[in-house]
Amino acid sequence: MKTGDHLSNTEIQQYALDGKGTDQVLAGHIAQCAQCAGRVQFYQKMARSISEMPGETFDFELAPLVLAQVPARKSKQAPELVFVVCISLIGILAGVGLLSYQHAGPVSAMLWNRGTIVYGFVTICGLLFGFLAVNLLQEYIIKIHRLDAPGKLQQYPRTTV
Amino acid sequence: MDQKEHHKPTDRTLVERVLSGNTRAFGIIIMHTEGLVAQIVFKMISDREERRDIAQDIYLKVFQKLDSFRFQSKLSTWIARIAYNTCINQLEKNKNSSTATYFEMPVDDDGDLAHEYPDRNDIEEDLIGAEFASLLQSELEKLPALYKLLITLYHHEELSYSEIAQIVTLPEGTIKSYLFRARKMLKERLQKIYNKGL
């Protein structure tokens, strides 16, 4: 869009600031027109001056003010730690059980019959399965809660202005 | 890349540290982003005390919502968006003159050269460095708040159209159009002052 014999304001700005500096038509006109060349220089000078302006800064220490108010966040790794501890305990118990079974006398051998071992194994598996199921359910509830939360920030819900 | 830059923790590292209970990492996030947040808050909120409360409110919201950050944008852009939305909410709450100023978007058409150039001299030839910068800053402050903010984010903070669009939740095309208008308005105002003989 041109106004009279000169480039429009939009074209001037596109040429000066918006990566259209290589446009041959615009470049050709600007090379021959002192007025348009002057406008290009003006916009470039304006942009340069704005970029060199000192930035705004708060006149107070923001980080200490905020950190004094943030609640202690519960460690996200707690369930994983509990899981590792449980597995370790089970491993230790199983090892101790196996050793005592191998070196047991006739009395304790009666306690370590096949039924006891199977019962113990099933109980341990059940506990492990229960722990994993509860953990999965908790994670599922948290994720669903996040999806349902109003005003999700990384979507583009509405035009604010 | 210098050694210090090389060891600078990434957004992901910082977020993970905060989520695992390290509040010092949140302090680092604040230090990395408060410049950008300050630009937004200063351009939108004029009252000093209000700015102080809003700045704290912004980062408390960031802390609360950090576990919902999905790294789909830069952390600073995400925080800037929270800052922008918090300022907008505050302006809507206030319902005072600052709200009117913010939403006031002058309609402008492109290119009336006779109006732009009433005389033959170009102002860029006559206004020298410091004088020009001072006048420009003064006129920039008088622009509608959204124009002011867009110009600052684009020219001062050097954000891309896409990043600005994510912050102010407007399409990129609208951002470009508003920026063109804002710069044209600035130019016309400077021209007018110059023609009046400063």
Structural commentary:
The complex is a heterodimer of chains A (161) and B (198). Chain A folds into two domains: 2-52, no CATH class; 78-148. In chain A, α1 (9-17) crosses α3, α2 (24-32) crosses α3 (34-52) and α5 runs antiparallel to α7. Chain A is an all-alpha fold and 161 residues long. Chain A is built from seven helices and two strands. In chain A, strands 1-2 form a two-stranded antiparallel ribbon. Chain B has 198 residues and is an all-alpha fold. Chain B has two domains: 3-99, RNA polymerase sigma factor, region 2, helix turn helix motif (Rna Polymerase Sigma Factor, Chain: A); 104-195, Orthogonal Bundle (Arc Repressor Mutant, subunit A), CATH 1.10.10.10. Helix content of chain B is 73%, strand content 0%. In chain B, α2 (11-19) crosses α3 (23-44), α3 packs across α4 and α5 (75-94) packs across α11. Chain B starts with a helix and ends with a helix. Mean pLDDT of chain B is 83; it is low at 109-121. Chains A and B meet through α1, α3 and α4 of A and α3, α4, α5, α8 and α9 of B.
